[in-house]
Amino acid sequence: MMKLSTMNAFFTTVDDQWRSLVADQILSHWEHDPGSAYVFRASSNFTVVFEQSGQKRFLRFAHACDRLRETIEAEIQFLYYLLERGVPVNRPLPCLSGNLVESVETSLGIYHAVVFEALEGEQLETDDLTPDRLVAWGKALGELHSAAEGYRLTARASWADQLDWALTILPPEETTARAAIGSLRQRLASFPVTPQNYGLIHFDFESDNLIWKDSRPGIIDFDDCAYSWFAADIGYALRDLFDDRLAQVDLNHPSFKDFVRGYRMARDISAEDLDQIPMLLLINHILKFTELLLNIQENPQDSEPEWLVKLRRKLASFVEIYRQELEIFIQPPAAL
What we know:
By secondary structure, the chain is α+β, with helices and mostly antiparallel strands. The chain folds into two domains: 4-117, 2-Layer Sandwich (Phosphorylase Kinase, domain 1); 126-330, Alpha-Beta Complex (Aminoglycoside 3'-phosphotransferase, Chain: A, domain 2). It has helices at 4-11, 21-27, 69-84, 131-148, 159-169, 175-188, 230-237, 254-266, 271-275, 277-297, 306-330, and strands at residues 38-42, 46-52, 55-63, 92-93, 102-106, 109-117, 198-201, 210-213, 216-219, 226-229. The strands form three sheets. Strands 1, 2, 3, 4, 5 and 6 form a six-stranded antiparallel beta sheet that branches. It has a two-stranded antiparallel sheet with strand order 7-10. Helix 5 (159-169) packs parallel to helix 10 (277-297). The longest helix is centred in the C-terminal third of the chain and has 25 residues, at 306-330. The protein is globular, with a radius of gyration of 20 Å. The model has no long low-confidence stretch (mean pLDDT 95).
């Protein structure tokens, strides 16, 4: 997630019609229909919807303090690799100068920006997915992993890089999180790593990153793609089934079984790999805990808007949830 100060600074440029002069400045580097752009969302990036010759497009940009240009360029390279192999992902579009990633100097600093075609179809909530859709969802992930097998990008992080980052960033007093990282690294070091079970994963294959057309989902938002075990992507996709709690992961949940059945239509995965999902989910918990902690510990600005005050409180509650998960993880096993 981006810094709250970055988010707040940008939204001071957004009017009551959800238009922004800063967004317009960035968008000016691409062909676009004048007056069609509006701010759509803000999370890890800012997203603006606009039209290009009447066709829907998405402008995505992040402040240089939150994202490195080379990691975005690697993401775009991966998308073109997948497109060449028939995986339905949203195509990046070059700007007027021909760049797929454009860095733009604004009054708020430098933003790294990309534009994507909009996939045709609709988004569905996990609770609205029928068993057949769950199977198709799992199959789509299996196909993605098969296409990604053996693909190497030096600019995308591995799970070990991610944990190293968290350990570097966490304050010394966060002893629980630091202990969890040490214990998790030790356990993950014993996991087998082969081209069949490990590679570049989406990292956020949840239902809100799928666009359904007929019975097949297209895939968006590869912003967090990283190297890890393929089973981790299954766990991250389905974490809402278990309220994102390690103790509630149920590999016999009907929806989980439907998803895995679909996955195995495209790619094999062993029961042993699936058994590691709770441990792999902890990587995500540590990253979320660290990102959110940094955000809420950032000094509040004078006269923050009410929406930001509420968001800070919401993030603080998530920090405590993840802290509890880490505390449970490092507890010694109960004596028999």
